[in-house]
Structure formats: C-alpha cells, structure tokens
Design brief:
alpha/beta; Rossmann fold; DNA polymerase, domain 1; 2 domains; six-stranded parallel β-sheet; two-stranded antiparallel sheet; 10 helices; 8 strands; 13% strand; globular
Length: 220
Amino acid sequence: MNNRYELVIFDWDGTLMDSTARIVSSLQQSAISAGLKMPSEEEAKQVIGLGLYEGFAILFPDADKSDADRVAGHYRQEFVHRNTTAHNLFSGVLKWLEDTRRDQVLIAIATGKSRAGLDRELTKHSMHHHFVTTRCADECFSKPHPQMIIEILNETGMDPEQAIMVGNTTFDLDMAASARVDGLGLTQGAHSKEKLLQSRPVAIVDSFSDAAEWLNERVV
C-alpha cells in the first residue's frame, strides 16, 4: 500500500451515486418486458459494474444477441425515463470532490456505465469539472479488464503506485489489481464485505463518508 496518492479513480454507480436499487429494479423490469426470466435482486446486484452486455451474459446465459439487444433497449428506457426509484449522489460527494480538487489531487472515473449515461449524470449534477478524465464500458473493455485504469494512468502521467481505485464491487478491485493499482472497497453498493475481501483491497469501508476520511489521510 502506498502512503500517499496523487490520483483517485472512482467507480460511479454504488460508489459516488446511490443507484444500486434503481439499477436492480430496471434490470428486473427490462427482463420482464423482453420476455426473459426476471433475475432476483441478489442476482442483479452481482453484475453491477460490468458493461451492459457482459452483465446480460451472466443473467441470461441462454439469450442470443437479439434477446440481449432487446433487453438493452428496454433497460435504457427503464433506467432513464420510466423508473421512479430515487438515485442521488451519496452524502458528502460534491464537497469532497471540490475540496480535494482544490488540493491538486487528480480525480478520475472508471465506470461500467455507457458514455451517454455517464455524461448525462455529470451534466445533471454539474460535475464535469471535477474529473481530469473518465472512462466508460462502451469505449473500453469491461471491468475487470485493466484497460480503463491503464488509459487513465497513461493520460495523467501517473505510475500505478501513485493511484488508487475506489469501488463497491470485486470488478473494480480486480481491475485495480490487474493494473497494479491499490483498491479501496466500499460495502454501501452491490457486493458484500465478504465478497470484496476476496479481491484483497488495501482497505474496506462502509460508506462514502468513511472513504473520504480514509482518503483524506492518504492523498497528497
């Protein structure tokens, strides 16, 4: 574990945004609309963080490409337009980002969301200026492949030991490990503490506020 980090890379859903419940219910309704078996809440939570089609391959292993395309269409409509489950930034996110950016710490995002989906959220919350760069699942290999982090390191000129990945799934932490970057796990999202421990993060915390406190002691 590095003592000081100059680059903090965040996952989005379940890490900065309290959106796990909305994703789960959107996945469930999309399956019903597409005529496929509805996944349980736990099954749906386990694929959060993957790219959309990578998640579908696990949830609907017998589905073909046309089935997956149909579910994807329903999901986008459900999550953006029809689902009424609240999804908001976790408490303290905006203040921490503002304070930390002023301290010259670089902040980035590596997410399983699409580029359109992430940009829509960043615009909605006026957050683009907080991040030096972002990577999404439809422009890179899906997590846990390390491409997102490797590209962020190359763009920022940082070495792996200067960065830390913060996320709420094993996909985040395994991606970090593959890129030789430390990982900080959060239990507030999709995966349990027991599951996160399997990916050997440098630490696990229970909330964004706990993550902020942990990071504040370790960023430049």
